[in-house]
From TrEMBL:
It is an enzyme of class 1 (oxidoreductase). NCBIfam families: ispG_gcpE, PRK00366.1. Residues 269-356 form the IspG C-terminal domain. Its cofactor is [4Fe-4S] cluster. Its EC number is 1.17.7.3. It catalyses: (2E)-4-hydroxy-3-methylbut-2-enyl diphosphate + oxidized [flavodoxin] + H2O + 2 H(+) = 2-C-methyl-D-erythritol 2,4-cyclic diphosphate + reduced [flavodoxin]. SUPFAM superfamilies: Dihydropteroate synthetase-like, Nitrite and sulphite reductase 4Fe-4S domain-like. This is 4-hydroxy-3-methylbut-2-en-1-yl diphosphate synthase (flavodoxin). InterPro entries: Dihydropteroate_synth-like_sf, IspG_bac, IspG_bac-typ, IspG_C, IspG_TIM, NO2/SO3_Rdtase_4Fe4S_sf. GO terms for biological process: isopentenyl diphosphate biosynthetic process, methylerythritol 4-phosphate pathway; terpenoid biosynthetic process. Pathway: Isoprenoid biosynthesis; isopentenyl diphosphate biosynthesis via DXP pathway; isopentenyl diphosphate from 1-deoxy-D-xylulose 5-phosphate: step 5/6.
Amino acid sequence: MSVRPYRDIIRRKSRQIRVGNVLVGGDAPISVQTMTNTLTPDVEATLAQVRAAAEAGADIVRVSCPDEESTAALKAIVKGSPVPIVADIHFHYKRAIEAAEAGAACLRINPGNIGSAERVREVVKAAKDHGCSMRIGVNAGSLERELLERYGEPCPEAMVESALNHAKILEDNDFFEFKISCKASDVFLAVAAYNALAEACDYPLHLGVTEAGGLRMGTIKSSIGLGSLLWAGIGDTVRVSLSAEPVEEVKVGYDILKALGLRRRGVTVISCPSCARQNFQVIKTVEVLEERLSHITTPMTVSVIGCVVNGPGEARETDIGLTGGGNNTHQIYIAGQPDHRLKDKDIVDHLVRLVEQKAAQIEAEKAAAEAAE
Ligand code: SF4
């Protein structure tokens, strides 16, 4: 029995696959994905985006491969990437084979869209030969005509049927190393489709609310859609789709997982909205602090609270806490306990130093424990 059962999320049991060195499904951590928006043949620009995304916490990055020039560039991208690369293929089975040969860790492809059974066999063979997994990507906006005619409009049943039809083609080819996504820009439709798909199969699910919009609305829609599915234990890997830089998608994806306690990475700042009682500029401080702490990957919590109304209470639950006090004298808490006062000093500089020291200490302890094992 857990200490706080109201926080428990019981994950759906999915089979586990591999995307390069990242495990997806089963008891593997829920991975965060994004996609580059550079021209794939521009290897330098694409790699810069892949690296930035990886630095922000992306576990896997997808790259579009619409033409031969792109799959030709893929080899160098895979080689220079710190994370596994998924090749995004639509229709052209030859691009899929080229991408597998170039070292893609996964092919995002719908086997029902690539033509004859022979072509499917060739793609599956290339995937098997090169240790590639696949993702079937169903999208409400591009459902097969036959399904649309039969169901009248994109609906959860049609999406699940489409996904299972594609899956059957791979199963018939004795290929089971794949995950499935069932995306829609409508949150209700996406959530209903994923719920139904989660019931209908045990393949790992890649979650996404597609074409969710710009940074703010897209974040909100993704948080509602992905959040409710993840909370129900559904989902093995996530991609937040935003009309914004890939790094933003990664940050939002991670923060959704962090908010649900499903992943821990970097500093989580707990801060108050501020009001007339604040003893320092809370909003500005948090804005600068989050930026200055973005390089820290060690999981840690920091509370930044404007006054004693909520400061001590929040600090009790965090690794490092600050409560604003009068006369520019603030209280610092370490591991929930009052530790020292900060008078007439720069709050951000001080907190950054404390967090960096704590992160170094945690990492050193972790390394020592691993060495002892
Ligand atoms: S903690 Fe203090 S400063 Fe912050 S919102 Fe509450 S009362 Fe206002």
